[in-house]
C-alpha cells in the first residue's frame, strides 16, 4: 500500500525500481500477443499524438464556457480527455469509432471461443477499449483465461465481506470490498519503489486486470450473504469465460439465456464516455495517482447515487406498478392512459430521455433486440410491456412537450430481462452495473498514465466572485 509516512525519495534509495515488462504477469495461452503486449504497442503512438496536439493546438478554442455551465454541472463542456468512447447526441455511443451494432458484428463471441452463447464477450470489449483494435478469437480467449487466473479473492477480503451486516446496502459493501484490495496494489508498490513515470501505466494495467477479474467474486459473495443465492464459494472454472463464471457464482449457471444476456449487458454498459459521474470520479481520483482500487471504489460510490446507477431499478419498479394496474394483456389505450397518469401526477416516465442523447439509445436497441431473440423473454408480460411502452411513450412525451428526448434509454430495457430470469433483487442491480462500468473507467486510468495526464484541478468561484466577474 502507498506509504503515508516514508518519503518517496527514501524509498527510491532503499529499494531498486520495480520494472514491469509488458507481459510481466500475464498468462500466455497461445502464440498470439497478450493484452499487456498489445497495449504496449500503442503507447509510443498515443504519446506522440498527445505531444502533437499540445504543441499545435493548445490555444485552439473548443467553445465558450458561461455562467450556465458553471452552475449547471458543466454539462456539455468539452474539457475532458477520454480515449475509450465518444457519445454523440444523434448517433449515440461509439467505442474507438465502432458503434454497438458494429461491435456486435465484429467482436468475438462466446461461440467464437468455444463456449455456448452468441453475444460478444466483455473480454472482447475490454481489449477494444484498451487497444482500439478488435481482438482475434484467440486473443479474446487468452484474455478470458488470463482474467480467470486472477479471479480468486484474497481470504482477507472474503472475511471483510462476511463481516458486513445483511442490512448494509450491497453497493456500500461492494465499494468497501474494492477498497480493501488496495492492500495488494501493484501500482502502489511500484510507485513506492520508484518506478519511472513513463512506466506508471504497466502496474496500473496489472491492477486493472486483477480488479476486473475479481469483481464477479466480490459481487457474488455479497449476493450470497445478503440474498442467500449462489453457493457462497465463488468457484472459478478456467474453461468458462468471464460472464459465464459470474452467472454460475450467482447461482444462475443453468440459465443459458441469462448468461448470454450478462455478456451483452456487461459489454454495452462498460463505457459511456468520461463525463458521467462514475467514469469521471474514477478519472478524477486516479489523477491524484491513487491506485485503481481506490479510484474505482470512489467511482462506485458515485454510481450508487439515485441520479446515476439506480435508474434501472426505478424503471422496473414503475413497470411493475403499471403492470399491476393494466394487467398482462393491456390495450394500447390502457398503456397510454397509464403514461398520462404518471405525467399528470407530476412524475417523469422513468427510462426516457438522456442528458446527452437526442435519439433512441443504441444500448436500449441492443437489449431490446436480445429480448426478441429469446422465446422465454418474449413470453414474459413484463418484457412485452417494456416493448409496448417503448412504442407508445415517445408520442405521449412529445405531446406532453417537456422532454427534450422522448426516446428510451438503456435503463428502460435492462432490468426486465434480469427480473424475468429470476434475478429480481432490485438492490443488486447497481452492483451489476458496477461490475460492467469497470470495463470502461479502469482502461482510461491506463491511458491517463500512458499519456502522463496531470492531476485534475478546475478553477472554482464563489457566487460573490462570480457576480463581480460578470459585472466587469
Automatic annotation (TrEMBL):
Lineage top rank: taxon: Eukaryota
Pfam families for the chain: Citrate_synt (PF00285)
Cross-referenced InterPro entries: Citrate_synth-like_lrg_a-sub, Citrate_synth-like_sm_a-sub, Citrate_synthase, Citrate_synthase_AS, Citrate_synthase_sf
One GO MF term: acyltransferase activity, acyl groups converted into alkyl on transfer
Keywords: Acyltransferase, Mitochondrion, Transferase, Transit peptide
Subcellular location: Mitochondrion
GO CC annotations on file: mitochondrial matrix
GO BP field: carbohydrate metabolic process; tricarboxylic acid cycle
NCBIfam families per UniProt: PRK09569.1
Family: Belongs to the citrate synthase family.
Protein name, entry field: Citrate synthase
Native source organism of the sequence: Malassezia restricta (strain ATCC 96810 / NBRC 103918 / CBS 7877)
Top-level taxonomy: Eukaryota, Fungi, Dikarya, Basidiomycota, Ustilaginomycotina
Amino acid at each position: 500500500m502507498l506509504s503515508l509516512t516514508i518519503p518517496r525519495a527514501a524509498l527510491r534509495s532503499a529499494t531498486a525500481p520495480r520494472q514491469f515488462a509488458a507481459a510481466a504477469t500475464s498468462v500466455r495461452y497461445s502464440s498470439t500477443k497478450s493484452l499487456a503486449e498489445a497495449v504496449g504497442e500503442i503507447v509510443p503512438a498515443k504519446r506522440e499524438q498527445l505531444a502533437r496536439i499540445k504543441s499545435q493546438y493548445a490555444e485552439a478554442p473548443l467553445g465558450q464556457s458561461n455562467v450556465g455551465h458553471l452552475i449547471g454541472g458543466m454539462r456539455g463542456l468539452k474539457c475532458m480527455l477520454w480515449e475509450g468512447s465518444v457519445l454523440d447526441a444523434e448517433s449515440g455511443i461509439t467505442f474507438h469509432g465502432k458503434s454497438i451494432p458494429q461491435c456486435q458484428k465484429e467482436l468475438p463471441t462466446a461461440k467464437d471461443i468455444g463456449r455456448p452463447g452468441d453475444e460478444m464477450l466483455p473480454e472482447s470489449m475490454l481489449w477494444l477499449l484498451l487497444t482500439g483494435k478488435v481482438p482475434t478469437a484467440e486473443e479474446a480467449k487468452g484474455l478470458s483465461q488470463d482474467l480467470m487466473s486472477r479471479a480468486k479473492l484474497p481470504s482477507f477480503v472474503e472475511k471483510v465481506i462476511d463481516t458486513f451486516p445483511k442490512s448494509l446496502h450491497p453497493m456500500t459493501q461492494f465499494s468497501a470490498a474494492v477498497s480493501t484490495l488496495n492492500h495488494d496494489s501493484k501500482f502502489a508498490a511500484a510507485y513506492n519503489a520508484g518506478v519511472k513515470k513513463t512506466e506508471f501505466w504497466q502496474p496500473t494495467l496489472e491492477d486493472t486486470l486483477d480488479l476486473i477479474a475479481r469483481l464477479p467474486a466480490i459481487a457474488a459473495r455479497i449476493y450470497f450473504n445478503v440474498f442467500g443465492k449462489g453457493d457462497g464459494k465463488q468457484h472459478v472454472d478456467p474453461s468458462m469465460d468471464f460472464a459465464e463464471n459470474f452467472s454460475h457464482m450467482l447461482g444462475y449457471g443453468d440459465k443459458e439465456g441469462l448468461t448470454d444476456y450478462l455478456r451483452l449487458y456487461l459489454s454495452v454498459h462498460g463505457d459511456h464516455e468520461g463525463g458521467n459521474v462514475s467514469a469521471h470520479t474514477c478519472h478524477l481520483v486516479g489523477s491524484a495517482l491513487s491506485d485503481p482500487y481506490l479510484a474505482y471504489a470512489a467511482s462506485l460510490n458515485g454510481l450508487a447515487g439515485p441520479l446515476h446507477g439506480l435508474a434501472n431499478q426505478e424503471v422496473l419498479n414503475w413497470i411493475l406498478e403499471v403492470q399491476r394496474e393494466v394487467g398482462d394483456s393491456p390495450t394500447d389505450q390502457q398503456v397510454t392512459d397509464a403514461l398520462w397518469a404518471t405525467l399528470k401526477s407530476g412524475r417523469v416516465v422513468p427510462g426516457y430521455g438522456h442528458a446527452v442523447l437526442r435519439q433512441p439509445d443504441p444500448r436500449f436497441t441492443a437489449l431490446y433486440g436480445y429480448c426478441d431473440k429469446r422465446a422465454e423473454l418474449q413470453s414474459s408480460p413484463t418484457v412485452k410491456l417494456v416493448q409496448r411502452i417503448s412504442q407508445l411513450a415517445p408520442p405521449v412525451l412529445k405531446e406532453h412537450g417537456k422532454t427534450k428526448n422522448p426516446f428510451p434509454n438503456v435503463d428502460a430495457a435492462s432490468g426486465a430481462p434480469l427480473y424475468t430470469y429470476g434475478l429480481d433483487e432490485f438492490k443488486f442491480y447497481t452492483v451489476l452495473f458496477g461490475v460492467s462500468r469497470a470495463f470502461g473507467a479502469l482502461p482510461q486510468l491506463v491511458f491517463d498514465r500512458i499519456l502522463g495526464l496531470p492531476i485534475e484541478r478546475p478553477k472554482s468561484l464563489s457566487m460573490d466572485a462570480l457576480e463581480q466577474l460578470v459585472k466587469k
